[in-house]
Design goal:
With about 550 residues, the protein is mostly helical. The chain has helices at about 5-20, 25-40, 40-55, 55-80, 90-95, 100-135, 140-155, 160-165, 165-185, 195-200, 205-215, 235-265, 280-290, 290-325, 345-360, 365-390, 395, 410-425, 425-450, 460-465, 470-485, 495-505, 510-520, 530-535, and strands at about 490, 530. Strands 1-2 form a two-stranded antiparallel sheet. Helix 7 packs across helix 14 (about 290-325), helix 16 (about 365-390) crosses helix 19 (about 425-450) and helix 22 crosses helix 23. It is globular and about 85 Å long. About 55% of the residues are buried.
Length: about 550
Amino acid sequence: MSTSKIESIVESITEEVKSKFTRTIGLVGVIIISLSAMLPGIFVTPTFAAEIMGPGIWLAYLFAASVVLPGALSKSELSSGMPSSGGSYVYLERTYGPLIGTISGLGLWASFLLKSAFSLIGFSAYFIVVTTYFDIDMELLTLSMSALVLIVVVNLLGVSKVKAVQAPIVFMTVALLTVICIASLFADGFDASVPIDGAINANGWELAEAAAFVFVAYAGVTKVAAIGGEVKNPEKNLPAGILLSLLIATVLYSVIAFLMMAAIPGNEWWIAADGKVVENPVFVFAETVAGSKFGVIAAALSVLTMISMALAGILASSRFLFAMARDNLLPQALEEVNVKFETPHWPIILTGIAMALAIFYVPLKDVVKLASGFKIMIFMLINSCVIILRQTRKEHDWNPSYNSPMYPYIQLWGIVAGAVLIAFIGNKAFIGAAAAVVAGAATYFLYGRKHATLQTTPVASFRKQFQSPSPTEHERRMTVFHAADMGGKNHLTVREFQNALKSLGLSYTSDESRAIFHAADVDGNGVIDIDEFFEFIETTSDE
C-alpha cells in the first residue's frame, strides 16, 4: 500500500486517541512560551547591528519584524489547520514530502542549535561582568562549555521542573528591561536625536543588512506551534498568542534599541577599546543609566535568562532529529528514549556536540548570521506552504479555522523580502543553506527514501491481530509487555515495544514496528502507556 495510505491510517488512529490528552496551555501560556524563545536576541544583537548601520538600529528591528510578520501569520494558519505537536518540520514535510522535509528538518535543527550556541556565548560575556565584580578570574570559553555540559545533562535528565521557572524568568526579564528603559529617560545626556538621525542617515543597504542580522532575535516567535497539541482552544489561542508575542517583542526590541542609543554617550560606544564589538550591551545600558551595582544585577539576570533559553533551545532543536527519526527519515536510535528518564538521549547528545563545535570554531557574529539565514529560509518555506495549501484546498481538504489576512500578498512579501535579507547576510548564509541542502538530500537518498516508503500496512494488520483477545491471551500480552518495561514506569520505548512484539511471536520489520509504535505514541514523547495502549488497541474496531 502507498505511503500516503499508511499515513492516513496512522492519522485516523491519532485523531481517535487524541481526545484522551488534556490541553492545558492557555493564551497567556502561549505568549510566555513564545517570548521566552525570543528574549535572548536583545542581549546580543544590538551592538553588532550598530556596527553595521550605526545608532539607527531601532529601525532595523522594525524592518525585521515586518519580514517576520508574514511567517507568523502563515504559521498561525498552519497551526490552526494542524493543531497538533510538531511545528514547522511537520508542516513542511506534509506539504512538500519527505525530501524537503529532511532538508528543512536538518535546517531547523541547525538554526535552533546555533541560536542556543549564541545564547551561551553571549551568556559568558555577561557572566564575566559578575565574576569580575566579585574578583573571580574565568575564561569565556570555559564558561560557555561548562554551561553547555550542564544544559546537556539537565536535558538528559528531563526538564519538566525547569520549565516551571520559565514564566517567572520571562516576567523578571521584561520587568528589568522596562525599569532600565524608564531610567534611561532621566539619564544625563539623554539625546533622542541620536537614534533618529542614525535611522535617517543610514542607507537602505545598511538597513537591510542590519535587519537580516537581527532577524534571529525573532526566531522563537512561532516556536509555540510545535506544542500545538497541548494548547487549549488552539484554533484561537495559537494565532492570537503568536501575533501578540510578536507585537510585544517588536515594541520591546525597538524601544530598547532606541533608548540604548539615546542614553549611552560616546561616538560608536559599541566598539570596545580593543577594537572588538561589545558583547554585553544590556549591561552597558543598565550601568550607564542606573550605576554599576544595578548593572551587575542586570548582568546576573541576563545570565539566568540566556541559560534558561539555551536550555529550552537544545530541547527544541534535539526534537527535530527525534521527529525525523519517527518519520523513518533518520535511524531508529535517534527516536529511542532513555528507559529511566524517558528523554531522547542521542538527539540531545548530538545537538550538544554540534553546539560545542559552533562555540569552539565559529565567531559569535557568524553564529548569529548563520542562525538568521536558516530561520529566514524556513520562514520563506512556511509562507509558500500556505500558498500551496490554499491553491490545492480541495485536494488536501484544507479548511483551517484561522485564515491569514491579505493572502497571498503578505506571503509573497515574506518570500521576496526574505530572499533580499538573505542576500545581505552574505556568503555565509548561502554556504549554510548549501550545506543543509546537501546534507538533507544525502540523508534522504542514502537512508530516508528506503525506510520512509513502506510497502505494507503494518498498523491495520496489527490492529486486526490484537482485537478482541480471549482473557488468557490478554493476560499473556500484558505479561510480555510489562516484562519488556525495563524502566518499571508502565511505559514502553520503541526498543522495548519491538522486544515485546518479538516475544509475542509477531513478525514485523523494524520500520513496520516503528510505524505501529508511532500510531500509539500520540503525544510524540517517545513512550507509550501500556494500559492505555491495550485499552485502545484491543477494543477499537478497524472500521
